[in-house]
Amino acid sequence: MEVTSSGGAPGSRDEEAAAQPPVELPINAVRPPRPGRLIGAAVALLFMAWLAYTIIVNENLHWDVIVSFLMDGRILGGLWVTIQLTVYSMVIGLILGVLAAVMQLSDSPVLRGTSALYTWFFRGTPLLVQLIFWFNIGLVFPSFGIGVPFDGPKLVEWQANELITPFTAALLGLAINEGAYMAEIVRAGIRSVDPGQREAAEALGMSHRQVLRRVVLPQAMRVIIPPTGNQFISMLKTTSMVSVIAGAELLTVAQRIYLGNFEVIAMLIVASIWYVVLTTIASVGQHFIEKRFERGHAALGARVRRNLRPFAKEPA
Amino acid sequence: MTAGHAEPMVKIRSLRKRFGSVEVLKGIDLDVPHGQVVCVVGPSGSGKSTLLRCVNRMETIDSGRIWVDGELMGYAERGDRLHLLPPAELCRQRRPIGMVFQRFHLFPHRTAVENVMEGPVTVLRTSRAEARRQAMELLERVGLADRAGHYPAQLSGGQQQRVAIARSLAMRPKLMLFDEPTSALDPELVQEVLAVMRDLAASGMTMMVVTHEMGFAREVGDQLVFVDGGVIVERGDPREVLAAPKNDRFRAFLGQVL
């Protein structure tokens, strides 16, 4: 590439283009009319305005009550329980999910079978039933202990009634149920990694565990993160099911308050506002975490754009 | 230069390998002396890649024996029985054998220099600072020091393959296996990879190269092996064998690739 004359535009890569002054052909095209879109937008705007009006002027909604309870100590306490339940059960669920997924991909039919049985059972029964079951586990197993299995002597023993509070029952139910779903997500993520990656890592002399931790899981994360974010957002709201065993989370607290002051709708709206706040924050967080795990893949897009640039400048 | 060794670097005897009902290797005997470059050629499906992958036990074998540097691969001999080696021992055996793949298989989530550091840091427990210093030396050697911070997706195929070679060399291998290292490259990128391999051969590295590059075989190879239908059909000095192929199938094959 050599530029002989000084007539070329700066940055031009093409000798021919450099020889002649470039011709500008601007496109100031007139858009065709879109009456349908205009009418649709007008109708949508009108509908939204009407909806907002009816909600704002409706005296049955008691906006003053809603505002006064938004920062109520009991509501904030319930909010904190909801956050705790969500985070703990997602973390435990993720660990269970990775474990079940790795077992599912193992060579041992016993490990594969155990994992399959776990996902089959907990995805096959309603969460509501599981929650009530865990809360009432004392009816089946009055005590828990650490010792020799199959009715051998016990080293330590706890009474189920002391151990199973609404919170631990909720945590057990949510986490174990979540693990069954996460197992499928993690398994899909692991399977999405090119088998050549595993081979390259093994050829370096890495052990199975090192291959999984250093090469396979970081790449699987890219596939695992988006549905896990969805699970997290879904879990924020699923915790409200715990209200059937009086889990002291957001919805339970809201219900307790309206049983006292009869502000049913107002309390439900207070709870809903907090759920929306939580899910919005979680969505923003999900966006940033996804970007973090796009490392190396975002670069691919940049490279494609860079490689296409010379062609875009070439005269037809 | 390394004629003092009595045992070859790689010794393969009566190697057989089956995939399901298809026997892809039907009794292979091959020696790769220390410091030599053996080029394995053959039509696709002939078993040449499988042969290479058996050497570092990426594939299990059905019968026969493979020794690398005098050590039986994959098994321990106790009394008159063979015992399968535990995974940790297999990893130890693979460590000094570098492997370069047709499709590079660089780790896409790590930069070029991080790819080269991965083996030393994870497997050899080298400190990150020391591993980085060695990795930069190796990238310098393959002419890519200025690309150290690039992700694989930002590199051309030829550059990726050179990083892959550097990644293997970071484990200080005594044997390098190349599985069609230039087959996935655009024609103009083939030479930069062959140049690195030529340098490596000149430095005395023992190499097994599955390739279609007859020019490279002629120039760098000490031995050429033609595999067809799971057996070695012809072998010898590349310059002699390529000039006057004796076997009909080899002649037909050369007619197609040259």
Structure description:
The complex is a heterodimer of chains A (316) and B (258). With 316 residues, chain A is mainly α. Chain A is built from 13 helices and 2 strands. Chain A has helices spanning 15-19, 35-57, 63-70, 73-104, 109-124, 127-135, 160-163, 166-191, 195-203, 208-238, 250-261, 264-292, 298-313, and strands at residues 143-147, 154-159. In chain A, strands 1-2 form a two-stranded antiparallel ribbon. Chain A is flat and about 85 Å long. By secondary structure, chain B is of the alpha/beta class. Chain B has a 6-stranded mixed beta sheet, with helices on both faces. The longest helix of chain B has 16 residues, at 187-202. Chain B is globular, with a radius of gyration of 18 Å. Chain B starts with 9 loop residues before the first strand and ends with a helix. The model of chain B has no long low-confidence stretch (mean pLDDT 94). Classes of the chains: A mainly alpha (316), B alpha/beta (258).
User: What series of H and E elements makes up the topology of chain B?
Assistant: EEEHEEEEHEHHHEHEHEEHH
Low confidence ranges of chain A:
1-12, 310-316
Distance between the termini of chain A: 19 Å
Straight-line N-to-C gap of chain B: 32 Å
Structural class by helix and strand composition of chain A: mainly alpha
From the alpha carbons, calculate the radius of gyration of chain A and give it in angstroms: 29 Å
Mean pLDDT over the residues of chain B = 94
What's the arrangement of strands in the largest beta sheet of chain A? 1-2
Q: What is the strand arrangement across the widest sheet of chain B?
A: 8-9-10-3-11-12
List the uncertain runs of chain B: none
Count of helical stretches of chain B: 9
Mean pLDDT of chain A: 86
Strand content of chain B: 25-35%
Largest sheet of chain B: 6 strands, mixed
Shape of chain B: globular
Most extensive interface: A-B, 25 and 32 residues
Number of strands of chain B: 12
Main pleated-sheet profile of chain A: 2 strands, antiparallel
